[in-house]
Design a protein that fits this description.
The structure holds two protein chains of two kinds.
Chain A: H1 7-32, E1 34-36, E2 43-46, H2 49-53, H3 57-90, H4 94-105, H5 112-123, H6 128-135, H7 149-173, H8 177-185, H9 190-201, H10 203-218, H11 222-228, H12 235-244, H13 249-280
Antiparallel strand pairs in A: 1-2
Chain B: H1 7-10, E1 24-33, E2 36-46, E3 51-55, H2 62-70, E4 77-82, E5 85-86, E6 97-100, H3 112-122, H4 127-140, H5 156-168, E7 174-178, H6 186-203, E8 207-211, H7 214-220, E9 223-228, E10 231-236, H8 238-243, H9 248-253, E11 258-268, E12 271-276, E13 279-284, E14 296-301, E15 306-309, E16 317-326, E17 330-336, E18 345-350, H10 353-357, E19 363-368, E20 374-376
Parallel strand pairs in B: 3-8, 3-9, 6-7, 7-8
Antiparallel strand pairs in B: 1-2, 1-4, 4-5, 9-10, 11-12, 11-14, 12-13, 14-20, 15-19, 16-17, 16-19, 17-18
Helix pairs in contact in B: 3-4, 3-5, 4-5
Classes of the chains: A mainly alpha, B alpha+beta.
């Protein structure tokens, strides 16, 4: 007798999605090993040439830049989100808690494009930040922030914050407060308690948040495209250019495949590197 | 060390115990959470090396009191002294107090040795000295050889020993135990109690033990502070608490007691005479001070103070056996005595004779065979 009679029905939507995804991935893979025929959307015969082309410095550099950008974004997001998540889980004031939640989570409800446009207003040469700094006399000519990697990272950090705050807060709220009380009774001051108890025990959340931020940023498109303005080449903007400006679908497809493989590899590597830290936290 | 000119105790009544500087002293400590008073003007003096138990039902304020002494909470009124020093405003990490938590709170990411060493590391003790003292502490709790294990690899009893070693290794001024046995199974609990008491006596560390289990409190303590609704009801040695409870709450919370309807007949100095049916018993006069001669009182009787006699024997109360519970070494009889009590009376008969002599339905007589009877002004069940 089937003990879970509706299981098949419940799983079927997910199965449909999975079939669609796999079909799309296979299609992309199929494109990636075809020859490019300039001036047409038709593709030629089988070839590895697209993947070989990726070894050229221009593309290799784009991959490296993207990894670096993701790493910077994940790191800065972590550093900014940790205090927020800590305050969120530790404050007794419900007003402060609501405030942090609103500030850190509502950006999630605005689209990436809307948020990116607001950053353009802030970062532009005549933008909010530059006018402010000029008026205060801290600068004598506008600082170039638009179309720079720094500007892209700043905007990406903002985009990635909510998810990081949520993941860190989840990890922090699962730490038994008695650990900290025990450390306190044993003579540890606030800083020592944080460094020896809270931080190591929140390590699983840090690793999870960092990996997620990394993957999130790797696939970001609107922010690097709009703020980078074509001068900050990342894998996703490159794919867009090749696919929709040059209509070189085969090469765009091969970039996608390598991009996916790279981000999976980096996340696996992060996981591996973090496993001693997680073991230290006693979670594995 | 005696400090006879201690300003804290100089103007206190000159009882012998007050000459010794208390290890812990609470002067009118009050703690409120919002509108509710968690602890109401607690006055308490704990002697050096004493094993003091805070006993009470959940929500009575005992954990609040513990947290105030530990420094995890701040008092709204009153002062707290540890070894004569005012610590009311001292942060927890500077109070030098050892705590064993209910769930032990062993640091899961550290080995047993690192856990025990934690309090020594924070004090900047030299590495060699740390190793020596950790080993010593683990030997004390019989866990030598477990130094490299992680807490999750230990049984509940072993975790508790580590928690105890971690709290004791810093040579704390006071050891606080927050319901440490509640997570252990019954067999282990008994042996851990004996062992803990032994270690405590050996080291002579002043200990404050929080529990809601009156059995634990009676068996382990030098003195017990019985608490209810944020107030300390009585502070006394376990046998005094049991034999001479100060009020209705203490009488019914500590040990079993049945309530009989009595009448105050006379007062002779410290003793009051109370009649229950044809019987008359002597009780301490103080608790019934406000009752007029001839008025009703509630008489609290322990199950072992009652004995069965033939129905109608002079000075006995008539009753009917309604239930019989065989407990191995003794038999519990539940007796209905409508004239003498509103509820069923519990009688504890040693041995197994009562099994056959007092079957359910038997009409018997009850007598009181003890002087340890107390009476209080009538009131609702506590």
């Amino acid at each position: 007798m089937n003990t879970r009679p509706f299981l098949g029905w419940f799983v079927s939507p997910a199965g449909l999605v999975a079939v669609g995804l796999i079909a799309a991935m296979l299609a992309v893979f199929q494109y990636s090993v075809r020859a490019y025929i300039p001036g047409t959307l038709e593709v030629g015969g089988f070839t590895w040439a697209n993947f070989e082309a990726m070894l050229r410095p221009l593309y290799a550099l784009a991959f490296w830049n993207t990894v670096l950008l993701c790493f910077e974004t994940a790191l800065f997001t972590l550093l900014l989100a940790y205090p927020l998540a800590y305050a969120l889980t530790r404050t007794n004031s419900s007003a402060l808690r609501s405030f942090i939640l609103i500030v850190s989570v509502t950006p999630l409800f605005l689209g990436e494009v809307v948020r990116t446009y607001s950053w353009m207003i802030v970062l532009g040469n005549n933008g909010f930040l530059n006018s402010l700094l000029l008026k205060l006399g801290l600068l004598d000519r506008p600082l170039q922030m638009m179309f720079t990697a720094g500007g892209v990272v700043a905007a990406l950090v903002h985009v990635t914050m909510p998810i990081m705050v949520i993941m860190l807060a989840a990890a922090l709220s699962h730490i038994d407060r008695n650990y900290e009380k025990a450390a306190e009774s044993l003579g540890a001051g606030p800083i020592r308690i944080f460094l020896t108890i809270t931080l190591p025990l929140s390590m699983p959340g840090i690793v999870a948040g960092f990996s997620t931020a990394f993957a999130w940023t790797f696939s970001a498109f609107a922010t690097p495209q709009l703020i980078g303005g074509g001068r900050v080449a990342t894998v996703s903007t490159l794919i867009y250019q090749l696919g929709f400006s040059s209509f070189n679908f085969p090469f765009a497809a091969s970039l996608s495949i390598i991009g996916l493989a790279l981000s999976l590899a980096v996340i696996a590597l992060l996981k591996k590197a973090a496993s001693p830290l997680e073991r230290m936290a006693g979670t594995t | 060390m005696l400090m006879r000119t201690d300003p804290m105790t100089a103007d206190m009544p000159s009882v012998a115990s007050d000459k010794i500087r208390p290890a812990v002293q609470l002067d009118g400590v009050t703690k409120r959470f919002g509108d509710s008073v968690a602890l109401h003007e607690a006055w308490l003096k704990i002697r050096p090396s004493e094993f003091m138990t805070l006993l009470g039902p959940s929500g009575c304020g005992k954990t609040t009191l513990l947290n105030l002494i530990a420094g995890f909470l701040e008092a709204d009124n009153g002062e707290i002294f540890i070894e004569g020093a005012l610590v009311t405003e001292t942060p927890a990490h500077m109070r030098e107090i050892g705590i064993v938590f209910q769930n032990y709170a062993l640091f899961p990411h550290m080995s047993v040795a690192k856990n025990v060493a934690y309090g020594l590391t924070t004090r900047g003790v030299e590495k060699k000295e740390i190793a020596r003292r950790v080993e010593e502490a683990l030997a004390l709790v019989k866990l030598s050889g477990f130094a490299d294990r992680k807490p999750r690899q230990l049984s509940g009893g072993q975790q508790q020993r580590v928690a105890l070693a971690r709290a004791l290794v810093i040579k704390p001024k006071v050891l606080l135990l927050d319901e440490p046995f509640s997570a252990l199974d019954k067999n282990l609990r008994g042996s851990m109690q004996v062992e803990l008491k032994q270690i405590q006596r050996e080291l002579g560390v002043t200990t404050i033990f929080v529990t809601h289990d009156q059995g634990e409190a009676l068996s382990m303590s030098d003195r017990i502070a019985v608490m209810s609704a944020g107030r300390i009801r009585q502070i006394a040695a376990p046998d005094d608490i049991y034999r001479r409870p100060a009020d209705r709450f203490v009488a019914s919370f500590v040990g079993d007691a049945s309530v009989l309807n009595g009448r105050l007949v006379a007062r002779r100095g410290d003793v009051a005479v109370v009649s229950i049916g044809d019987m008359s018993v002597n009780v301490p006069a103080t608790p019934t001070a406000g009752v007029a001669i001839g008025d009703a009182v509630d008489v609290f009787v322990r199950p072992e103070h009652l004995a069965v006699t033939p129905r109608g024997a002079s000075g006995s109360l008539p009753g009917t056996v309604t239930a019989q519970v065989f407990q191995g070494g003794h038999v519990d009889l539940y007796i209905d005595a409508p004239g003498s009590a509103r509820e069923r009376i519990l009688l504890r008969s040693p041995g197994i004779a009562a099994l056959s002599s007092c079957p359910v339905g038997a009409e018997i007589g009850l007598t009181i065979g003890s002087d340890d009877i107390v009476a209080f002004p009538p009131g609702e069940a506590p």
